[in-house]
Amino acid sequence: MSLTTSLDMLRDAMEGGYAVGAFNAENMEMVQAILSAAEEARAPVIIQTTPGTIRHAQPAVFLGMAAAVAGTLRAPAAVHLDHGDSLAIVARALRAGYTSIMIDGSREPLEGNMAVTRQAVEMCSPCGVPVEGELGRVGGKEDDMEDSGGGYTDPDEAEAFVAGTGVSFLAVGVGTAHGIYKDEPKLNTDLIKVLRARIPVPLVLHGASGLPDEVVRKCVRLGMAKVNFATELRMAYTGAVRHSVMSSPDAFDPKLYSRAGREAVRNLVLDKIRLCGSEGRASHLFSRKEGARWWMPQYFTHVRTSVTRRSPRPSPGRARCSSGSGQPASAARTFPVWTGTPRISSR
Ligand SMILES: [Zn+2]
């Protein structure tokens, strides 16, 4: 199976009352672990990387690993940019072939958030790549960013935000936080119900690591269609590696402790897939006749070559982009390549 976008899987999740697990990967073993768990559970899955992760290794490295592993499996998988913090990084991920993008302008006032999100949608939609926006703030520490949080999403603003930006999914603030919870989070589950009733696109829950299982289940039941897990995976990987190194202090083959980390992440991802209710949903997605837009290899090649031919860095002007449905280059459309201010806000 080639990589797919997250659009069809999240729409199916919204209609089917389950959620797709979105798991942050930091290295090859975590990519393998996530996809292996998805295959075993026959579940659609999203692999995601933060800007910090793709500064550690280029987005093309993660895309290449995911595409290579996904190509040997049957479960549909998307590769998603998590918390894109500038349009420049959106352009990098898009050019690398990411099949799903998040632009996080939630630290900006509403107008600024809408403006930057709309620009990201304009960049991604001609390529058929869906965009996740965020409104209301998820607190805690994610990547290099720390936020005091406390920003519950206002339903009126959320309606206007979705209509005014054209986002495909919306991350909402309902009381969760990134990182490790020091106190029990004050989740507003009534707000999830209200948002689900009023917002026409799938909703995304961030900061699910460390939430009790029954709370995650309730959030999914009330309408969350994408649930992000990052911190718990990092802790599972590092804990298993630490244990392996300490229990075999004379071993020096990195494959030994990497395997221990991979196995721990795989088991955790299996648990989270079951928690989200997405087990067995891959076969349902395969049987959908309409909207099943599987990613074609020439899409990646065309975006990458047409942009880099103009300039080694994103430059003003327009880059060509196929429709994302595997159409030949002659049917390609264009999208603007952004080169403006490098970050949404100073951090
Ligand atoms: Zn997040």
Secondary-structure map with pairings?
Blueprint lengths: L6 H10 L3 E5 L3 H14 L3 E5 L1 H6 L2 H12 L6 E8 L2 H10 L3 E4 L6 H15 L6 E5 L3 E4 L2 E3 L7 H11 L3 E4 L4 E2 L10 H10 L4 E3 L7 H10 L1 E6 L1 H17 L6 H23 L4 H7 L9 H14 L7 E4 L11 E4 L11
Helix pairs in contact: 2-4, 2-11, 5-6, 6-7, 10-11
The structure holds zinc ion (ZN).
What's the β-strand tally? 13
Q: CA-to-CA gap between the ends?
A: 39 Å
Count of individual domains: 1
- Return residue spans where pLDDT drops below 50 for at least 5 consecutive residues: 288-320, 322-347
Widest beta sheet: strand line-up: 1-2-3-4-5-8-10-11
The CATH superfamily is known as Aldolase class I
Mean pLDDT: 83
Radius of gyration: 19 Å
CATH class, please? Alpha Beta
Overall geometry comes to globular
Percentage of β-strand residues: 15-25%
Tally of helical segments:
13
Bound ligands, each once = zinc ion
The major β-sheet equals: 8 strands, parallel, barrel
Order of helices and strands: HEHEHHEHEHEEEHEEHEHEHHHHEE
Q: What structural class is derived from the secondary structure elements?
A: alpha/beta
The CATH topology:
TIM Barrel
CATH architecture: Alpha-Beta Barrel
| Helix proportion | 40-55%
